[in-house]
Amino acid sequence: MAKIAVKGIGLDPIWEDFDREMGQLFMMGFDGTTVTPQIKKLIEEHHLGSILLTAKNLKSAEDTTRLVFDLQTIAHNAGHPVPLAIALDQENGGVNSLFDEIYIRQFPSAMGLAATGSTELAYQVARATAQEVSSVGVNWIMGPVLDVLTNARNQPLGVRTTGDDPQEVSSYGVSFMKGYKEAGLATCGKHFPSYGNLEFLGSPMDVPIITETFEQLQLSALVPFRNAIAAGLDAMMVGGCAMSSVGTNVMHACLSEQVVNDLLREDLRFDGVVVSECLEMEALSHNIGVGGGTVMAVKAGCDIVLLCRSFAVQQEAIAGLKLGVENGMISRQRIRKSLQRVLEMKSKCTSWEKALNPPGIERLSTLQPSHTSLSTKAYNSSITVVRDRNHLLPLSNIIEPDEELLLLSPLVKPLPASAASKALTESVSMASPEPAIWERSASVMSGEGVFRELGRSLARQRSGRVLHTSYTANGVRPVHENLINRAGAIIVLTADANRNLYQNGFTKHVSMICNMQFSSGGEKREKPLVVVSVSSPYDFAMDQSIGTYICTYDFTETALNALVKILYGELQPRGTLPGSISQSQKLNQSRQHWLVENWQEERDSNALDALIKTAIEGSPPGYRSELSSSSSNSFLLHNPDVEEAHFVVRNSSTQALYGFCSTYFFKSTGTGVIGSLFVDPTRRKLSIGHSLHNRAIRTLLQREGIKRFQLGSRLPSIFLGIPTGNGVERKRLRQWFANMGWNTALSRPVCSMVARNLSDWSPPEGLAKSLQGAGVEFDLIYGWQYGDSILDHIKTNSRQGVLEVYKLALSDHTSCGIIRAKRPEDGSIVGSVVLYNGESAFAEFVPALKDTNEACGGISSPVISPSVGEYSTLLQGLILLGIRQIKQQGSSACVLDYVGSTLVLDTAPITNIGRQIDGDGNFDSLSAMGFSVLHSFEEVTCDAATWTMVPPS
């Protein structure tokens, strides 16, 4: 058999075969737990050199040994000069490909090992892991993870890396690497140039972005990569992320010469094997194509191109590289350089003697006792009690045997390589609202899935009952409240609550309930609450309101067994939070400052319509979007009495809008209004809204005569304020605007209301009689000939938008009218309301009218004179006449487009009408007339002179 070439030695003549040479430049995966015809063809006909195995390929240690042997045998029989490189991910914790309850041990995640404070223990675990996977024939491990969590929040990497301190990540990364090498595996650092501070845009079509400059990366993120290279790292995986900073514009790092050749090869002096991210990712295949992407990856400096599973795509990549060489885009010399690196790596980790004689189960049986002991030691050393302010641990000290212990767990997917994954069906069923109750012999509901065994373990350790039920994004339900009231102590589990915000909200709600508990004697008694993060420790690391907080760093069975020992006092916690997690500044997201541009109608109209559609589709489940009947025209008033300025954050290359904000300055009242602010749901949490808001405030502050700011606009009435239809979303938005400087505690409830089935509608009993006693007469007028008297009446009202609504109505005498209430003795106007239909220009600014999905008319902007005593009666009279008129026009529904707690002028006392209509959220008077709430909001106002959050220019 031909020799394996190493650095500085010429290649064997067998490599003159171009197809054989090219095959070594690919790593591919496949679906199946046995050899498939597709992977067999790739090995035999395309001379595939490397294979990536994942959890979907591996059923057990014994089956894996057989599968790897079969793959190597096919390659040997096909005349491969060197064995296949067989790789897998075995990071431990929640990211493993190979699982076997008997022969493969569970070990803590990278961050869990960092919590032990021992690089020696990390080395031992890495060596044990490598010994196990090498026993089944694997010769290449895709690790260590060398990313630094420079932004710890909302990063999917989570506990896969050791933390946010570059030196600590370096020391543990090198320890992992040495352990892998000691057991004979080739190593592969990832994910260069760092996944530790990515901006995730949320769509498969969007590539996550590194916003740091090369200079910033050198100071932190690249430190572990540089140190691992110096320590002898065999290979490096370059990520598929984009890079966007001053002087850098990289669409995909693994396709960029600037990243692979200039940064990795030249600056960091890495001469090992460079592996690309999988080119099957949707964003890359859609934007570039796999064939072209393969050529770009090799030209950039990648030695091995990864394609995970699709046979058609894999063939496309091979054809693309061959065409690239034939066209002269890639030289044979370039191919040969990569081949030499690959062969050098293989010479260190495999040979045909090793590949065709895997140790298998016999060796794993020998390793099992010592590895079991090592696993227990590692987990027992990693569990961290961050706080136990009220000394609740061990639980036996604070809960009586006859009291119930309640376990509340989120519904999460089982780990791909775990006992739970094998035991549960692929889709975890929703839990029953009734709790599962474990006695010593009781069964457990399948809906509790992942944490079933934890409930059993908790029950086995005490004589009292353990109640277990799950929670979801539906929040705290009555069943949870009942169980909390019954229980003597509560344990709440969270799993990445920073990315699953419902878990954060649920836990805080439970904490509030526990703090409000009272004893039978009426004394306040805080109910014991223990919060356990079973993944990222960042969930409540800085939240001092959670008095007892424990971190396990993963939720493997072994981790949860160690947790039970901590909870019951059988084990003293020894773990510590890794890195600088305790420093609050590390938890603060750095703000990205986006370029905010002025809205241009001709340029941006179509893009805004597309953004509106995306925002509607991305609304939370059950959340009604106020944009549902809006278009780009709905935001443009073109009113000489209103100065409007709208802003966008846009992609200048694709013309797509990422965010939009509309502002209006009503000169008549000196009110500056943010009328809408929304961002593409896939690009939230990137500070786009922050940038738009700052630009809006700066613009409004410059308006001459500005007196107040208002969040929410009557005209146009797309957003009347902070939407309140969804409780979770309302809390999130209130907090966001509060952080931006708005005093949301002083908000005013406003809403749009609708009355349907007008054909069957009749006024409330006694209303006609009340109107007769009010001493007023009503009429309906059209056009500017009545303008002077109407405007004199309206000018007594200083609320934003009212004057402009009436001017619109006076100008549109065919589709808008005004109902007046006058004193018969002198003809003075004491009340008025605007009447309009769906054909009016005003209707374009009232999406609620279209939301009824039926023939509809509208009533807007009631103004009642402060001299009138019977506010409610007069308002009902105006609305009654409006409904009658709308019925006569053939409409089946009527919308009140703006209902607030002060429908009278600001200087008037808020007496009857304010309380009867919607003071304190009471809409009795309008409900009696058949109206129900359509959309609800919180309008927020503040004095412009006292605005404290003035953003910099």
From TrEMBL:
SUPFAM superfamilies named in the record:
(Trans)glycosidases, Acyl-CoA N-acyltransferases (Nat)
GO molecular-function terms, A-Z: acyltransferase activity, transferring groups other than amino-acyl groups; hydrolase activity, hydrolyzing O-glycosyl compounds
- Report the residue ranges that make up the Glycoside hydrolase family 3 N-terminal domain in this protein: 19-344
Q: Does the keyword Glycoprotein apply?
A: yes
Pfam families, sorted: Acetyltransf_1, Glyco_hydro_3
Q: Which UniProt keywords apply?
A: Glycoprotein, Glycosidase, Hydrolase
Domain N-acetyltransferase positions: 642-711
Q: InterPro entries in the record, alphabetically? A: Acyl_CoA_acyltransferase, GH, Glyco_hydro_3_C_sf, Glyco_hydro_3_N, Glyco_hydro_3_N_sf, GNAT_dom, NagZ_Beta-hexosaminidase
> Which GO BP terms sit in this record?
carbohydrate metabolic process; peptidoglycan turnover
Q: State whether keyword Transmembrane applies.
A: no
What protein family is recorded?
Answer: Belongs to the glycosyl hydrolase 3 family.
What is the name of this protein?
Answer: Beta-N-acetylhexosaminidase
